[in-house]
User: Fold these one by one.
Assistant:
Number 1:
Amino acid sequence: KIYRRSQGFLERLKKADASGTKAVSDVSLTVRHGETMGLVGESGCGKSTLARLVSGLMEPTAGEIAFRRDAAGRTPRLQMIFQDPYSSLNGRWTIEDIVAEPIRVHRLRQGRAAIRARVDELLTQVGLSPADAEKYPQEFSGGQRQRICIARALAGEPEFLILDEPTSALDVSVQAQILNLLRDLQKNLSLTSLFITHNLSVVRIMADRIGVMYLGELVEEAPSEELFRRPHHPYTRLLIDAAPDMDIGDRSLHPIAGELPNPAFPPRGCRFHTRCPFAGDVCRTTAPPQKTTEAGGMFRCHLDLDLSNASANMPASKA
Ligand code: SF4
Ligand code: MG
């Protein structure tokens, strides 16, 4: 089963939210059944906007969100896991009520005993205990709350799971535990998911393919190991060099030189030209074409650079 974005979907999409106008444009992603697509980029690049659009929490002002339907014409069942496990759990509900809700909504089990048995199973699966079902969210730590959120998402038996910075709000030691749990669940349940993060080391652990976003655009997309072995976009190269191996605790939001321009007013031509060490005249006036690679990747750049070595060899930034 392949969930395919049609070409040109989300074209010129603009959406206002609390922090101003955020634009996501012309993003096309293909996520295969049982695979995880990682989406990485700096804060403000439009990752969360994209997640909200895909999940249906936000309506596109233009363009389309297309899912491949199954034989019966149904779209896949979605669940979402958010960054902040504090605000996403209702403090007046018991853990049992919280985890049981998607089971009830989607009528996945009938009868109180069967639902409770499923809740116990899910809590165990995420490393909690069935006795926790009687408690309230306030009685748990951040990491435990994220486990509850994961149990709730799994309760809906999602065919497509969206994880938006699921570990970014947690302590570093807890982040590793939650990532390990998610890895196990990925393998055991063959989940199909979109994993969003600003952290390239995290996405390297989690994703089969990685998409790199910059100012609302997908600038490169490739199988994970290929992206690290030979990135084709200068922004990807700089992100890789800024992310030390396994530094999953890194919270820096602007890991590379230069200010991120206002996403509401992206630079003309190539949106990355104000920070790109390779920028030439054409980059300042003309949007780069989308190119494909032999390894099954895509990138948008006027040049076709061999960036397989660290950016120590790059020219000094002209920005
Ligand atoms: Fe850099 Fe030009 Fe390529 Fe944009 S198109 S990434 S500015 S070289
Ligand atoms: Mg975000």
Number 2:
Amino acid sequence: VKDIGICAIDIYFPQTYVNQSELEKYDKVSNGKYTIGLGQNNMSFVGDREDIVSMAMTSVQMMMSKYSIDYSSIGRLEVGTETIIDKSKSVKSSLMSLFQERGNTSIEGVDTLNACYGGTNALFNSLQWIESSYWDGRYALVVTGDIAVYSKGAARPTGGAGVVTMLIGPNATLVFDQFLRGTHMENVHDFYKPDLSIEYPYVDGKLSIECYLRALDKCYLEYKKRFETTTTSTFSMESFDYVCFHSPYNRLVQKSYARLIYNDFLQNPNNPKYQDLLPFKHISTGKDSYINSKLDQITLKLSLDDFKRKVNPSTLLSKECGNSYCGSVYSGILSLLSNVNDLNNKKVLIFSYGSGLAASLFSLRINNSNSLFKTNDIGRISNIKERLLNRVKTSPEEFSRILDIREKSHQMSGARTPIDTLDYVSPGTFYLDKIDDKLIRHYKIK
Ligand code: ACO
């Protein structure tokens, strides 16, 4: 089997969003804190009419119909999410209703849970299945995303929502580089959800940023090791045309690309283009190098032109929809395909981070020559720019009211119908109709 990777990709994001500069005023924080300080434009959210199952169903059905994929051609279905509505039943099982009604019940795969990294694990499993002796010739489907909500306060503007679906197979458009992966995992408590009675995480914001950047450093070194055993060239950011990051908020993505440039400098400190960084050589991966505004200033300036060219095209969806946790980095890939026309043979580096923590740096090459769908087709079919423009902007008061409804609804028990109306659910979208006396959730399409 040749050229295994992503053959098609699309995203479902909700109809409603709140504007970040309006949210700044409502939250009485200084002008620019969310829009410049965090780098975010808008944020997607849902009330209690949508949950992770309804969003995943919408995302899968949209992919299958837009690309006219036969339901029987799927042999593996993996879900990556941290939006938990059942301690036992996987979202994958709920998605089976779409397949069983069309006669396909022979589908491997269940859910993977680890903060924002579940989708990456689901993707890796699917790639490895196709490479293995267990593969039966069919496609895999990876469904990944979340509803990210935080309690009131500093973290709330870094929420978001969206579910990405990817069709994985041979002769792909986005072909993953075999063997080239750098992984770093450790046990930390930067972000976790120990209290199942509330939807919100326990989060140590500053620690999570430090963990994210440290994981990036470690993955850089691991990837570099593998890169340099398989090629004769030296590894640096010059080896790639584009870089996609997991994006909790855009400013962290800017800092992360700058951090990769800092890593390039540490590998090659005598290169004259890095001379402004020489005073920062000794701190390298020390604690004070992760939150250091002087170092940030220099690396951000040094990397700015490259950032605009190599990273910015992949940031559209995360700036507009916010953090979709497991979906975030893959919405970055889709943004890239929607923003750049001539991608053939381009090399893309990808950084996936999930708190707790699990992180990987991996890469792909774009193959428009003998793939079924070209990157331009995928960009056109996903139509994200027009869909983003057609959303409904709600006021921060309404956003706050709806999150209060979600919170209340989450704490209710027993048979119930959701509190929210169907006003914000767009036509063709699955929604939660009711929860019956056995606590089984029932869905309908609007
Ligand atoms: N104009 C321009 N910039 C501003 C303004 C302003 N008016 N006000 C503040 N800023 C800047 C700050 O200087 C800061 O920049 P810096 O990061 O370069 O220092 C930035 O905006 C953020 O301001 P802080 O005061 O540091 O923000 P705060 O502590 O209130 O919250 C945080 C930010 C920690 C990211 C919070 O939103 C959070 O906890 N989010 C959830 C955790 C998260 O997303 N972690 C990332 C990795 S893990 C994951 O994916 C979930």
